[in-house]
Amino acid sequence: MKPESALKRFTAFLREKGLRLTQPRSDILMMAWSTHDHFTADQMVAWLTEMDGKASRATVYRTLSLLVEGGFLSSMDNGQGTLLYEHILGHAHHDHMVCLGCSRIIEFRSEEIESLQEELAARHQFQLVDHTLRLEGYCASCQRQRNDA
Amino acid sequence: MKPESALKRFTAFLREKGLRLTQPRSDILMMAWSTHDHFTADQMVAWLTEMDGKASRATVYRTLSLLVEGGFLSSMDNGQGTLLYEHILGHAHHDHMVCLGCSRIIEFRSEEIESLQEELAARHQFQLVDHTLRLEGYCASCQRQRNDA
DNA sequence: CTAGTTGCAAAGGATTTGCAACTGA
DNA sequence: TCAGTTGCAAATCCTTTGCAACTAG
Lengths: 149, 149
Fold this sequence. Notes:
Chain A has helices at residues 3-16, 23-33, 41-50, 57-69, 111-123, 140-148, and strands spanning 73-77, 83-87, 95-99, 105-108, 127-138.
């Protein structure tokens, strides 16, 4: 999905909720859309400051919440009490491996795990809404460094 | 594992790190060992206060960290920025389904998912240390309530 | 116009830390 | 004895909120 189209969808989403598209909201969406990395609210504030697209910290938090609610972004805990966001490009859901050495994030997807989850939920009469799978460990290059040391 | 034995192991763990077994530490371990539920640091403080086993909030946090480090407790994020602890009784690892309605936690375990995770990690040359799998949704009784409403 | 937005600064909640007074081995 | 502990309060970190001044439609 191209940025313009995301913006259109966002506008529609806002209108449906009786909300308005404003410059800060548009800036934040564009910014989120133009990175392919996971980012924190704080990084978003920094980016906007750099590019003198203005949006206060408060507005960034408020807008990121809206974007998650609207299904434009997903958020995950970084494991230290901070939320990491990433945009959803109509891509299929994926899970994460997080390197304990360099914080690198490797994305992966396993159909088998997905369907096992569904089976398990069904078995417990649990109505699945979402899930999080995080593998923690060391990426190839951090393993080498650790071996050297 | 019985409480006494956990205490022994904890003492050994502490000694190895040049730390001491103290009354607050012992109280916290016993308390953690005597509940079969997930609990927060705050609940632990409340319990200790009730039973006039004294330990300040600071000490509770410091001790819970030690217990996690020593493998006596595991901690997981409750999804709202608070850590939930649970003791490990030499039980096998398990994962969680968290009810979005009533916060109930259902534990489960799937060998198949476990081994798929290992496969995936290996495929990415990722050295697995730990993992977290959380299924979010609605438990059977909350589904009924939602249907009624 | 006017309901919805923004920025600011203050408030919040969870957790951590500095420090001086203790205490277990 | 004396390194390790504790409690307290202050400090942090991330995130949310109250509010008066704006602004999109």
